[in-house]
Design brief:
With 329 residues, chain A is α+β, with helices and mostly antiparallel strands. Chain A is built from 14 helices and twelve strands. The first copy, chain A, has one domain. In chain A, strands 1, 2, 3, 8, 9, 10, 11 and 12 form an eight-stranded antiparallel β-sheet that branches. A two-stranded antiparallel sheet of chain A has the order 4-7. The first copy, chain A, has a two-stranded antiparallel sheet with strand order 5-6. In chain A, strand 8 and strand 9 form a beta hairpin. At the A-B interface, strand 2, strand 4, helix 6 and strand 5 of A face strand 2, strand 4, helix 6 and strand 5 of B.
């Protein structure tokens, strides 16, 4: 099936650019309630699956063995901005494990947080691996590595941590992954269908009352994300602003190359979407539209209008804006 | 006609994201030599048409009346990085006109040049309108405004400068523009077909030996761009690096929302392309592929490989890269 028109950028009286994508809404039973484009399209979920990658950390007992609180669990599922609240927490987490920045395998990049970036730039200081937006996920990997007594190269596909991640990922998506790529942070990223990713989000949404360590872990990670939106991304970012706008009712997560997921525990629904061209602005607009459609986000909220509404130029003149394409949401 | 597959982002052994677009190669007679997607697709050329917007500046005699050199003419066609070489030149240009930063109507934004950005951020200084990537184009508009003795609101659609731009734009594209939008810099941006934009680039390519002030102006602007690639964009940017890689044989220009054009005087060919999703990485990859195809850019040149080749993550591991889609270039 072809991807569906989802988001348009208008300028003046014409559509200037257009984005196609695939999206599914799944119920707690794992069935597709609604779909656009091709539910069987295979994608890399990228960072949108960090809560899946964190399941072994919690269900193994590794998280409790070192007393990880909800803020750290949220950070394990985060693509953080590298602000002080994020880097201080990761640093303290590594200290608690008796480990250091050099034990991470995520690589270094400049933080997106304005103040943190300014601090580094203006002091001619290079960012370190703790600034990497995935350092919370990697601190989680290191926590499980220590718990399992495994070796230091925890991003290797054959490492016990990644094998545990793969097993949890395949069970929760309900699919054998057709393969994996290497993510920006050097961890394996397992491919899945849009339907599989939506099914996984619905599993997290419906985890309450289900028996077993995995369901309990899913509920804990989901609730940690909802309770600490500031840890999942950062000030000004879509995940943080939209979760706050929904009053903590919904957990959402972005992934590179325009993937976005949402977990709606009250409705016991899961959402997964991918914009085929990888345009993040369109993934943010599309998840905004679907959350509005499902009644959990106010279309008039500033956080919603920032992703799906009028745009102004450098002199404040309205030039156009992002809209949903006919037939989508 | 539907847009054509043009650029793919691969990760591991699968295509992660894909970009569709429209492109034409036109000869000096204005005929389409080759096309992908729909040559009749209507687009906003955005900054890719700055050399068209500069035609009235030169053909009116306004540029010579104030002795604009080739560096300033290149800057009139530029989306510059706001580096010192750009901002010092615009400031000197305005001084020469007896005008000031406040006379500009482009608005202010942070420069993309790293050193300039660092200088402003670390001294807590706000950028001014001279930092706007379009300030050279606007200095050109002000030069023509003064020459015509017109009013200060030179970005108004009814202003003599914009009426002169519209007339030149329509004559060189060979089409009546179906309308205009307001650009990021507040100037009107006239819509055209991809074929019309390609025809305009072929006009610039074949301007030598043609009679009249317009053809002479087109050749001068084109040659100013080729002689001063550093003024057209900035260090590290696609226009500057690719023009240098081609040894000044070709003039190229990017436009917002993934438009790219090229002027090939030796071949008397013009190229215009638009990636429908507005993804700049794909527009840069697509123009790179077409310039390689036409034999003016070496596929192995670092500037080409940077836009169309393998990508590495934060730890230097190759994760995949951008490729041309089957059937394109």
């Amino acid at each position: 099936m072809e991807p569906a028109p989802m988001i348009e950028l208008w300028r003046g009286d014409r559509c200037e650019s257009a984005h196609l994508g695939h999206a599914v809404i799944c119920d707690a039973g794992g069935d597709i309630v609604e779909a656009w484009g091709d539910p069987d399209a295979l994608i890399y979920p990228r960072s949108s699956c960090k809560m899946l990658q964190a399941l072994p950390l919690v269900e193994s007992g590794a998280a409790d063995a070192v007393g990880l609180d909800a803020r750290r669990l949220a950070l394990a599922c985060a693509s953080h901005s590298g602000a002080a609240i994020h880097t201080d927490t990761v640093r303290g987490w590594l200290d608690g494990l008796g480990l250091a920045e050099a034990d991470l395998r995520c690589g270094s990049h400049m933080p997106s947080d304005k103040e943190a970036m300014k601090g580094l730039m203006c002091s001619d200081t290079s960012p370190c691996q703790i600034h990497n937006n995935c350092s919370g996920k990697h601190a989680g990997f290191l926590t499980l590595t220590k718990h399992l007594g495994a070796g230091p190269e925890y991003v290797d596909l054959a490492h016990p941590v990644q094998q545990a991640v793969r097993a949890a990922f395949e069970e929760v998506t309900g699919e054998a992954s057709p393969g994996n790529g290497i993510d920006g942070c050097s961890a394996p990223n397992f491919a899945t269908s849009i339907a599989g990713l939506g099914r996984a989000m619905a599993y997290f949404a419906g985890a309450d009352g289900k028996a077993g360590a995995r369901a309990a872990a899913a509920a804990r990670l989901r609730d940690a994300m909802r309770a600490h939106p500031e840890m999942v991304a950062g000030e000004g970012r879509a995940c943080t602003e939209l979760m706050r706008a929904m009053g903590g009712r919904v957990a959402i997560k972005t992934g590179a190359e325009a993937v976005f997921v949402a977990i709606l525990p009250e409705q016991r629904l899961g959402i997964a979407l991918k914009i085929v061209d990888g345009g993040t602005r369109a993934a943010e607009a599309a998840i905004t539209a679907l959350l509005i459609r499902l009644g959990v986000l106010d279309a008039a909220h500033p956080a919603a209008l920032k992703r799906l509404g009028p745009e102004r130029n450098w002199r404040g003149i309205e030039t156009g804006g992002l809209r949903t394409a006919p037939g989508f949401a």
